[in-house]
Design a protein that fits this description.
The complex is a heterotrimer of chains A (376), B (366) and C (314). Chain A has 376 residues and is α+β, with helices and mostly antiparallel strands. Chain A contains ten helices and five strands, in the order H-H-H-H-H-H-H-H-E-H-E-E-H-E-E. In chain A, strand 2 and strand 3 form a beta hairpin. In chain A, helix 1 runs antiparallel to helix 6, helix 2 runs antiparallel to helix 3 and helix 9 runs antiparallel to helix 10. The longest helix of chain A has 93 residues. Chain B has 14 helices and five strands. Helices cover 62% and strands 8% of the residues of chain B. The chains are: A alpha+beta (376), B alpha/beta (366), C alpha/beta (314). Chain C: Pfam families: ABC_tran (PF00005), DrrA1-3_C (PF13732).
Chain lengths: 376, 366, 314
């Protein structure tokens, strides 16, 4: 993902270094040669250059560049005129940001040529032109890449925001879908219960009446009883139906579902899978079960993908004000766990009910969810 | 103010007995041992041939040559041999260039020209000392030049030097200087520990947690160590001057400048390396550099300028700069080399400090 | 008032999050305990609070001010007692305290007075001129504290201040932590010794893998695990004990008699203390008591249950 950054700052430093090497080389072969003074001066010049590059504030940078120029002028006057070749680079650095149009800089960079001895005219002209071309192109490039980068940054931020939004709304949709289902089921069972209650009450009234008529009107009584039997039969049938419709719900929720999940996992991945629990599981609410299931599924997937484990255990423990659910394997683990998307998903789901997810890689992978529980 | 506090804290180190012993007793003992044991190396009998100088008489009647010989006999320059040369200047210079002679003095009635081999700067300063004393007597001016080996172009400056006192270093005089500069270089080792010691003692945590900046800590520590070392060096100088009667010359402020610049050089070298090289390796690197510099810089014995391996490498030891500058200063009254050496020392110091400062800013912690 | 507030504080080293969106508030006057195994993020958190390392994400507010923007203010109001001894062995005890207090801008007679106070406070007045290299481990630890408190910080962070010292010095330190707290400093305390934390701290946060996994008073933390405690009473003979009388005592949940072992096990609400009444009940029934043992979850149990690891062996 990370693109290689080309830092214009570094390039201009390298350019200066090249210039410096060229000048030093020329001085070395010249008559005067490299003297101690020259070495000391160059060291000082390098220090000054570094100083102006380290400074963060633009004013200090410019002051540094100005100082370098003055220093170089002094040196070229005192030590060796070759050193004047270093002037154009620094001039550009000093004047570049101040001038709107690049052309005058070239003039400025060329100006010192008049003060130099004739032998140096050609070299100076060449260096100044090359410096001008290189630095102008470089600064144009810098501006452009700065602009690109800021656009890119903004786009990335926007993308991240949208992605997060999408993720959130999908999560929300899933949760509400599920809640809707639960509510629907509640409503259904409530209704059925109401109806059974209703029919049972009807049967009861019929039987009460039959009891009263038992002595006086046996035929009427028998008829009422038959009616009651009929209603009761219907009721039983309704109860059966209710039970039938309740059954899948029970399987879908809670520890039974977890068991199913574990069995399924063991069967498909040939991994020894163990499910244990302690405490009063009834206190776990459907929403909590839902989150635990999703996270356990995710954790099992991670185990298959990364852990190289042969056994995995799922443990659910209901404490007094907290549920602790953990999935741990006997695999390789990792000394420092780096969160992937799956983990972030687990964290977000769990955070929705105020819980925490902890991943430990010290003894195999262990994913632990801690979900707060309203105290009983 | 905070810088001052940190500097003062650094200064409290002087109560450390180990440090005191190392910084004071070691050099004083070393000077004594080397100065007396190796004194034979500086005696006349052995030194014959040490400094061989050609001279030619350009006066019409040869009067200068005669005066010169007389002067030499009177002044008793035991370990210098002056040979009269009859050939041309170019031939004489050839002899100087290939190292068979330390220099060539052309005696003109109008003034003396002295051509020295640039490798034997200590010898040069001694010879020019003698020449100038002679010139002084004969009211002549002396023009000296130190031509490059490649191009024997006479220099553009004319110097007049007056010399008092002895013209050449006795063993004690030499080692007083050499051991002092060596001990200064050893302070690079303590400087390498400067920041690291705060880290290992965990006091770096306290310093960073207090409301002072990293820069203040950094500068304060450097200033403190600098002052501490300067104090030690001053004491060593005084001890050698008054106890051993070592010659530190007349221009004490200049001698001080060179020594101080070397202290700055050593401290920033140690500090810079401790930032560049990580962990314990930095200590080893610093010690290696110190040892090499001492060996090639003439701290243990005087490097003869005879073109062998050691003398070839000698100019690259930072101690050589300082030692030669000091010798020039003490025995030749020359300030040129001293200023160059100080500038070089300070230049390297500035570069190293900058590097350290940059690395420190990037780092978490000190 | 919140002395310290951490808001989604995060410290990343590369991709690895050493501290992960940590949110925490420490109120004025608290002794706040930070519990966590090695690598849980305690030290990283403390280092960020003390501005020793930069923050990757999130905010720290000290006395309502963001420390990233008010560095000097924050540093001046925090005193840190590092886990490792951080003193100069080649300076006297007094010079140590004076030097560090001086960094906080104290001057002249004021500086002298504060430094002496801090030494007196840690019981080192008579060691004024001694060098720490001649000190015992406990005395060094006390000096370590003295160096952090002379500037009277609002918040004192103590990172394992009692590691490896004799019981006497340890008691001294625990008492001085309490005294500092009474004198108005808020304290953040970390320790491997669970008993210390249990004894000292008014509120505790348990850290694991850079997150706060539980936070609250001791009672709140313990109630995560269970809301009852067990009392086991060994008696000479349990035969003929009427358990109904005991069950009627308010707060008693269950009473079980083990005839073979001659013991009575009673579980009660965690927050009530009704041991007296239970014993009275037994005595009224003329039953001879041999021993009484009350057990309720310790912080150690809480820690072990939630993190799956013991604090000590980690």
């Amino acid at each position: 993902m990370r693109e290689r950054e080309i830092r214009p700052e570094n390039w201009s430093i390298i350019f200066k270094l090249v210039m410096l090497l060229y000048v030093t080389g020329s001085v070395y072969v010249s008559e005067s040669g490299l003297t101690n003074w020259y070495t000391a001066a160059i060291l000082l010049y390098i220090s000054m250059e570094l100083f102006s590059h380290i400074m963060r504030s633009a004013t200090l940078q410019r002051a540094g560049a100005a100082a370098s120029i003055l220093f170089i002028i002094t040196l070229s006057y005192e030590l060796n005129p070759m050193l004047a070749l270093l002037i154009p680079v620094n001039l550009h650095r000093l004047a570049g940001p101040l001038l709107r149009h690049p052309a005058p800089i070239l003039l400025l960079m060329m100006a010192p040529i008049l003060l130099l001895p004739k032998e140096l005219y050609a070299s100076y002209g060449l260096t100044a032109s090359i410096s001008y071309l290189f630095l102008t192109v470089l600064s144009a490039y810098t501006d452009k890449s700065k602009a690109y980068r800021s656009t890119l940054e903004a786009m990335r931020e926007e993308q991240y925001r949208l992605k997060k939004q999408l993720h959130e709304s999908m999560e929300h949709r899933r949760q509400s879908e599920y809640m809707f289902k639960l509510e629907e089921r509640n409503r259904l069972s409530q209704e059925i219960h109401d109806r059974i209650g209703h029919s049972m009450t009807g049967a009861l009234i019929q039987m009460e009446a039959a009891k009263r008529l038992y002595a006086t009107d046996a035929a009427r009584s028998a008829e009422l009883l038959q009616n009651a039997i009929h209603i009761s039969k219907e009721g039983i049938e309704q109860i059966r139906q209710v039970l039938k419709s309740m059954k899948p719900l029970k399987e879908q929720l809670g520890i039974n579902r977890m068991r199913l999940l574990a069995d399924e996992f063991a069967a498909t991945h040939e991994m020894e899978t163990q499910l244990t629990y302690e405490g009063n599981l009834d206190r776990i609410e459907p929403l909590h079960w839902h989150i635990i299931q999703q996270n356990v599924t995710e954790a099992l997937t991670n185990t298959v993908k990364y852990a190289e484990a042969t056994a995995v255990s799922i443990h659910i423990q209901v404490l007094h004000t907290m549920i602790k659910a953990s999935v741990s394997d006997n695999g390789t683990g990792a000394s420092k766990v780096i969160k992937g998307l799956g983990m972030i998903g687990m964290e977000e789901r769990t955070a929705a009910v105020g819980g925490k997810v902890i991943v430990d890689g010290s003894k195999g992978f262990a994913v632990t969810m801690l979900i707060p529980l309203a105290s009983a | 103010m905070n810088i001052w506090r940190i500097a003062v804290k650094e200064l409290m180190m002087f109560r450390d007995v180990k440090m005191l012993v190392f910084m004071l007793a070691t050099p004083v003992l070393l000077m004594l041992i080397m100065g007396s044991l190796l004194s034979s190396a500086f005696n006349g009998s052995v030194a014959v041939g040490d400094i061989r100088v050609l001279y030619s008489d350009h006066s019409e009647d040869g009067s200068i040559g005669a005066d010169w010989e007389l002067w030499l006999r009177q002044s008793g320059t035991e370990n210098m041999v002056f040979e009269k040369f009859e050939g041309s200047d170019a031939e004489a210079m050839e002899g100087v260039r290939d190292g068979s002679y330390s220099g060539y003095a052309a005696l003109n009635p109008s003034g003396f020209h002295y051509y020295g081999n640039s490798r034997s700067s200590i010898e040069n300063s001694m010879v020019s000392g003698i020449l100038s004393a002679f010139a002084d007597r004969y009211k002549l001016s002396i023009a000296g030049a130190e031509p490059e080996l490649e191009s024997m172009v006479p220099g553009s400056y004319v110097k007049e030097t007056r010399l008092k006192g002895s013209h050449m270093p006795a063993a004690m005089d030499y080692f007083a200087v050499a051991v002092t500069t060596m001990i200064i270089l050893y302070s690079a080792a303590t400087a390498g520990n400067l920041i690291d010691s705060e880290r290992t003692r965990n006091t770096a945590i306290r310093l960073l947690a207090s409301p002072i900046s990293k820069g203040e800590i950094f500068v304060g520590k450097i200033v403190g160590t600098m002052v501490l070392n300067a104090g030690f060096i001053a004491m060593i100088m005084l001890i050698s001057k008054y106890m051993y009667d070592a010659n530190w010359g007349d221009n004490l402020p200049m001698v001080w400048l060179v020594l101080l610049s070397e202290i700055a050089f050593a401290l920033s070298l140690g500090l810079g390396i401790s930032y560049i090289v990580k962990g314990k390796a930095s200590g080893i690197v610093i010690m290696t550099i110190i040892q090499l510099a001492c060996f090639f810089g003439g701290s243990y014995y005087r490097i003869e300028d005879n073109g062998d391996f050691v003398s070839m490498l000698a100019p690259y030891s930072p101690l050589t700069w300082s030692n030669e500058a000091l010798m020039d200063l003490i025995y030749g009254g020359e300030t040129g080399a001293a200023i160059t050496a100080s500038a070089l020392n300070l230049g390297v110091a500035a570069a190293m400090l900058l590097i350290s400062a940059v690395m420190m800013r990037r780092r978490e912690g000190l | 008032m919140n002395v310290l507030q951490l808001k989604k504080l995060t410290k990343k080293y590369g991709e690895f999050a050493a501290v992960d969106q940590l949110t925490l508030a420490v109120q004025e006057g608290e002794i706040f305990g930070l519990l966590g195994a090695n690598g849980a993020g305690k030290s990283t958190t403390i280092n960020m609070i003390a501005s020793l390392i930069p923050i990757t994400k999130g905010e720290i507010e000290l006395l309502g001010k963001n420390i990233a923007k008010n560095g000097k203010f924050a540093k001046s109001n925090i005193g840190i007692v590092p886990q490792e001894l951080a003193i100069y062995e080649d300076m006297t005890a007094y010079e140590n305290v004076r030097f560090f207090a001086g960094l906080y801008g104290l001057r002249g007679p004021e500086l002298k007075r504060r430094a002496e106070e801090a030494l007196a406070f840690t019981g080192l007045s008579d060691k004024h001129r001694s060098y720490p290299r001649d000190f015992s481990g406990g005395m060094k630890r006390r000096l370590n504290i003295a160096c952090a408190i002379a500037h009277r910080p609002k918040l004192i962070i103590m990172d394992e201040p009692t590691v490896g010292i004799d019981p006497h010095s340890r008691n001294y330190i625990l008492n001085s932590v309490r005294k500092l707290n009474e004198m108005g400093s808020t304290i953040i305390y970390t320790s491997h010794y669970m008993e210390e934390v249990e004894e000292l701290c008014t509120r505790i946060a348990i850290l694991d893998h850079g997150k706060v996994i539980a936070e609250g008073t001791k009672a709140q933390l313990k109630s995560i695990i269970t809301d009852q405690k067990e009392i086991r009473i060994d008696v000479r003979s349990a035969t003929g004990l009427d358990t109904r009388k005991l069950s009627e005592i308010a707060g008693v949940r269950t009473v079980t008699v083990n005839d073979e072992q001659n013991s009575v096990s009673i579980s009660t609400d965690a927050e009530v203390n009704i041991l007296n009444r239970i014993i009275q009940g037994l005595m009224a029934a003329d039953i001879e008591i041999r021993s009484v043992e009350e057990s309720q979850p310790s912080l150690e149990t809480v820690f072990l249950t939630l993190t799956g690891r013991s604090l000590r062996d980690s």
